[in-house]
Amino acid sequence: MENEKTSMDRRSFLKGAFATGAVATAAVTGVGTLAGCAAQPKEGKAGTSASDGKAAGGTYDFETAPDPIAEGDIKETVDADVVVIGAGFSGLCCALAAAENGANVVMLERMDHVIGRGGSIYAMNSKLTKEKGYECSVEEVAQRYKRMMGYHSYRVDGRKWMLHFNRSGEAMDWLIDRMTTASSVGGDDLTPVMEHWYEDPENINGEFPGTHEFLDGPNGKGPDDNPQQDVCANMALYCEKAGVDIRYETDAQQLVKDGDKVVGVVAKGKDGYVRFNGKKGVVIATGDFGQDKDMLEKFIPWAAHQTEFGGIWNGSGHKMAYWAGAAVDKSETPAPMIFCFQWRSITRQVRAFQGLMVNEDGRRYDNEDNVISHGGLALMHQKGNHAFAIWDDDYANEPGWQNHRYVDGPKVFDTPDDVRAYWQTVVDGPGTINMNGSGDIPVKMIKADTVEELVEKLGLPKDETLKTIEAYNGYCDAGVDEEFGKRKELLLPIKKGPFYGIECTPWFLSTTGGIRCNEDLQAMNADDEVIDGLYCLGSTVGDMYTNCYSTHFPGHNLGGTCLTFGYVTGRKLAGAE
């Protein structure tokens, strides 16, 4: 076997095949031949990279297959039915569903514990949504999905979306049954709740009901917490009880192929390399690639150069899949998850700010009636990739955004004075927040006695900004937005002090997609041929979103590619369906 590294040109990389004939002896054609390697996790903001960018041949370093790990360096071989790479939410769901249905499962996790981020999990027709009166028919979801396919330019896989619709309620019920009784495995009993959502009376840019959370655990006491960590911690305990062999601090590095079939993976643990064979399948559930600058520059350059952060993982599973023959999404552009979290500091809800937004020239640039994902993208079209929210004291009296955070639950704020008190804590705060373990986000809310003082403190051009505010107040008084046609219910003037403002920036939370696959979550090459034995879940699943991840279904990624796809794939690998 030759040990020379081999480089792939763009067409060969997308096709999942090596470019040169010289690679034949190192390609994945023989029994036990190794076919890929994962780099170590990186830390820091988007842009961290171990490489200097493109190599001399015009390709990035991650497009070059590494030397195979020598057979003599492998200290141990472990046989299983299913090998799951990654103990995040999607991997945990797959491993548990498979083990509960009789499969022998090994799960590899590079960290010394499981990690969960967020908490919003979208599912339709669960027992909780039915209890709350939000059952959804196939005709209704067809209308919703028709709109969403348009948002994604019809460059997504409709079969995967329907898989989520048809099976997410069942998967959520399965999860609810376990989370509410987790003390039986030494965990924390959690309370399932249904999040409220933004209803657009124009039925254009609103959200849809179905977002679940699990509260009352140590990390899920309130809206500022990270309840998904509690869910994942409970799932790990259930996996252990079901007999899943969880190998922590074990970094998967190279897939193993027998001919065209993926049959295992070589990982590095504390005591060296171990080969894990998966008789029924190897599942990649390794998260995003936001910490690999080269991958961002190749796949999402427009986002990589305009915003901070990018994710928490380095695409190790994506790379292993590519080197084993998998192609990238058919659109060739995995989608970023971009929000604006400064808006959350105004309303204490993950939703767009619908008051006055101006760019650094002091001018409005769009209709502010939006969802947080698309509103965040709009910021990226402005000079400096930022804009400024401006509002007055009376905004605290507006009941339209003081909705219930949870269906049948308490309101976010009980009184307008509670709103004002919250704003004051942000004004007096440290100037940053950390959202669900997603990095420190700058939040510098400004309070001023006059509009002129506010404009000066925000660093905006005085004359142009005051002209914009005067014109906006006129639209509010007339009930007609002559610039962008924002509906009159959202036209709230800026007249009564004190006045408030905050700089708003897009925040690159994660990447979604990257591995082409079918509705059975089997990885595919560029000819849409299945790579036998290789599956993908979670943020690696390709062709679910394009342009951007949309928040019209808040928590769709956790509820779809993680919960539903993990649950169904685990059952199928175990032979339960």
Secondary-structure map with pairings?
Blueprint lengths: L9 H6 L17 E2 L39 E12 L3 H12 L4 E4 L12 E2 L4 H5 L6 H14 L6 H22 L11 E4 L16 E5 L11 H15 L3 E3 L3 E8 L2 E9 L2 E13 L8 H7 L1 H4 L3 E2 L6 H8 L11 E5 L4 H4 L8 E3 L13 H8 L7 E6 L23 H12 L4 E3 L5 E3 L2 E4 L2 H8 L3 H17 L20 E6 L2 E6 L9 E3 L5 E7 L19 H18 L4
Parallel strand pairs: 2-3, 2-10, 3-7, 10-21, 11-19
Antiparallel strand pairs: 1-8, 4-6, 5-6, 8-9, 9-10, 12-19, 13-14, 14-18, 15-16, 17-18, 20-21
Helix pairs in contact: 2-6, 2-15, 5-15
Feature tags:
28% helix, 21 strands, disordered N terminus, FAD/NAD(P)-binding domain, alpha+beta, 577 residues, Flavocytochrome C3, Chain A, domain 1, nine-stranded mixed β-sheet, globular
Structural summary, described in words:
- This protein has 577 residues and is α+β, with helices and mostly antiparallel strands.
- The chain is built from 15 helices and 21 strands.
- Among the domains are: 10-114 and 253-336 and 511-538, FAD/NAD(P)-binding domain; 341-505, Flavocytochrome C3, Chain A, domain 1 (Alpha-Beta Complex), CATH 3.90.700.10.
- The strands form five sheets. Strands 1, 2, 3, 7, 8, 9, 10, 20 and 21 form a nine-stranded mixed beta sheet that branches. It has a four-stranded antiparallel beta sheet with strand order 13-14-18-17, sandwiched between helices.
- Strand 8 and strand 9 form a beta hairpin.
- The radius of gyration is 25 Å and the shape is globular.
- The relative contact order is 0.18.
